[in-house]
Amino acid sequence: MRQIDLRSDTVTRPTAAMRQAMAEAPVGDDVYGEDPTVNRLEELAARMIGTEAALFASSGTQANLLALLTHCQRGDEYIVGQVAHTYKYEGGGAAVLGSIQPQPLDFAPDGTLDLERVAATVKPDDFHFAKTRLLCLENTQNGLALPLGYVEQARECVDRFGLKLHLDGARIFNAAVKCGVDVQQLCRPFDTVSVCLSKGLGAPVGSVLCGRRVDIDQARRWRKMLGGGMRQAGILAAAGIHALQHHRERLAEDHERARMLADGLQAVARCSVEYETMQTNMVFLTVPPEMVVPLRAFMAEHQVLISGGPRIRLVTHLDIDAAAVERVVTLFQQFFAG
Ligand SMILES: *Cc1c(COP(=O)(O)O)cnc(C)c1O
């Protein structure tokens, strides 16, 4: 029986067509700027996101760190969500490697940061305080596409204080597909945007950081310093090109399967399902706490992997088809009936 892995959309394996594109990619030394496939990926990403330039990074964590290092100096501060990836899930990199102080705020339930609170949190120009320099947003946030119109308001807010605006757009294409708008509309207000190629888009490795040429040139310097100057990286960039060209529109299927999964689990007694209207490819599930461990064990016995915790996150992706969703719902019914 084929394994069904719902822990994350990072678990996808390259398709046969993607592997072929990787095998056939022309390569060169990217540190000399001579890898034609990396150059093609960077041009393609910049064109799609609507920026002057883009930079291939080893991961989303690296792309976000490059943006923070580019916008902030030692002793500066960025405002960020309390559970944002750029604050909570990147090992404190901005503080450790950039001497940049985070100022976290709670996200609203819709994944936004309240802009009045952001404005009230910007520190006055006074030597007691770090200099507030940057606001970081995330789209999607916990699978939720941000409400349309919010990012323009965020731009107006940061402009009042002369701050920069960075988007952790790890899953920005999920948001664009969900909202039925061009991704450029969602990215336009930002100075920089990071995009993961290795989540729902299905590439094995890599992210891109998109922005103005002057910022991307600076980010390229930081990338070298961080050990991210990769040589014949075209092998990996080819997977990213394939992902951007062939796996964007199909994200709608992941959203449809997440909805099917939510509907199916809603009907299972003792499962409390969260699935909001702006949800993309994630379903959050709460079960009685004493059942979490046995549930995971039962699923694993049946070749289904789910994450732990009191609030279980189930993620759909390229390797989860409708039959897999049906099998998972049936297993939940069996477990809770038993
Ligand atoms: C996955 C993710 C990243 C980057 O993660 P990497 O594993 O470093 O590629 C950044 N932001 C969000 C919101 C993510 O989900």
What would you note in describing this structure?
- This protein has 338 residues and is α/β, with parallel strands linked by helices.
- The protein folds into 2 domains: 11-246, 3-Layer(aba) Sandwich (Aspartate Aminotransferase, domain 2); 250-337, Aspartate Aminotransferase, domain 1 (Alpha-Beta Complex).
- Helices cover 43% and strands 17% of the residues.
- The protein contains 14 helices and 12 strands.
- Bound molecules: pyridoxal-5'-phosphate.
Keywords, separated by commas or semicolons:
single chain; alpha/beta; Aspartate Aminotransferase, domain 2; Aspartate Aminotransferase, domain 1; 7-stranded mixed beta sheet; 3-stranded antiparallel beta sheet; 12 strands; binds pyridoxal-5'-phosphate; PyrdxlP-dep_Trfase_small
